[in-house]
Amino acid sequence: MDVVKSILGDKGTESDPSKTTKVHKDVELDIDLGTLLATDYNTLDVKTLRSKPNSYLKTLTRDNVQLLINKIWELPVERLEDAIVAKLPKPEYVLPRSLAIPKPKPLTKWQQFAKEKGIQTKKKGRSKLKWDKELKKWVPTYGYERAKAQEQKEWLIETKDNANPNDDPFTKAKEAKQERQSKNELQRLRNIARSKNIKLPRVGLPTRDHFPSSHQLSEALTVARTSTASVGKFQPRLPKEKDAKGIAKEVPGMKRKRKAPPLNAVDEKRQNKGLVDNILNKRKVLRDHLTREGIAEIKQTERNDRKKKKKTGASKHNKNAKKPKAGKGKRDLHAKVGGRKRR
Q: Is 128 in contact with 140 (CB distance < 8 Å)?
């Protein structure tokens, strides 16, 4: 176009060389017009850079930008009102990312089900407003002012014939809404846990993940049954339910099963002998313990007496003892000489 040629014309270069559009480079620049990137592989003039760094960098930048603009005006251009616009091609240079590529979000339970069944939701092109015949106005289907429109619409609730007249239908509707919100929030948290491979306890019967053995399951069942105020006395039992073995020691207030009486004289004699041996062994252990403690106590008292004697002996002075003599003017500072200490 004539406009482009007039812009890129080399007029007025003689008066002001800084306005020239022709720039000479030994090595042509690598220019990517899609990203407006120009890469200069020419060597730098080190002497000029050190002597005049600001002017040298300014001139170098100006020349490279001029070459980039010249390449832009070589593209097909068109006029839009009072502006001339050039159509840039697709970028060739791949810009590096500062962060890692985000991983695709895992599908929710409903999205996975819809994908398997081929269900498609048409969200694009759907209007947010919907005409309500009762209110006779446009009502938003979601978002802002949706709750107000719903309150205006449900100002009167029809009750059934068998409904309790004392119940408030508005309170029931509010509780039902809160329950739905809680259910949706629980499902959202489950989706997050499932995406991060976190195992959550199922609602309902326990699985093998929670109780690997039958003994643990029976213990949990016994503890749950005996966790009432009556320690499970009035709690109904399941068919063929038995208390877990050894759980009576851990649950306070739970009655232990009494041992069956001996069937004959030999069993009774063996049982009595075991009881006596157990008592004697306990007495022996107690006696040994007391003996050790007694010996340790005696030794400690002896140590205390010795310390007391040393203290009392140092404090008392013997009246018959001779007084220490002085050094008679010859005193050795390094040798220990007796005598009265002067203050």
A: yes
DSSP string, 115-128: HHHT-----TT--S
Across the range 189-201, mean pLDDT stands at 79
Q: What is the DSSP code (8-state) at residue 67?
A: H
- Map tokens 């895992």 to a residue: 106
pLDDT tens digits along 106-141: 888 888 889 999 888 776 667 788 888 888 888 888
H/E segment holding residue 79:
strand 77-80
pLDDT for the residue numbered 334? 63
Long-range contacts from 33-41, C-beta under 8 angstroms, 24+ separation: 33/71, 33/72, 33/75, 33/88, 33/89, 34/88, 34/89, 34/90, 34/91, 34/92, 34/93, 35/91, 35/92, 35/93, 35/95, 36/68, 36/72, 36/88, 37/93, 38/64, 38/65, 38/67, 38/68, 40/64
- β-pairing, 137-140 vs 129-132, is antiparallel
Q: Report domain extents, the chain.
A: 14-86, 109-119+126-155+170-195, 211-255
pLDDT digits (tens, 9 = 90+) for 294-304: 667 777 877 88
Is the overall model pTM greater than 0.70, yes or no? no
Structure tokens given for 187: 């499902």
Contact yes or no for 251/223 (Cβ under 8 A): yes
Rounded to whole angstroms, the Cα distance separating 276 from 288 reads: 18
Question: What backbone torsions phi and psi does residue 138 show, to the nearest 5 degrees?
Answer: -80, 125
Q: How far apart are CA 20 and CA 49, in angstroms?
A: 22
CA separation for the pair 223, 248 (Å, rounded):
10
Instruction: Report whether 318 contacts 330 (CB < 8 A).
Output: no
Determine phi and psi for 176, rounding to 5 degrees. Answer: -65, -40
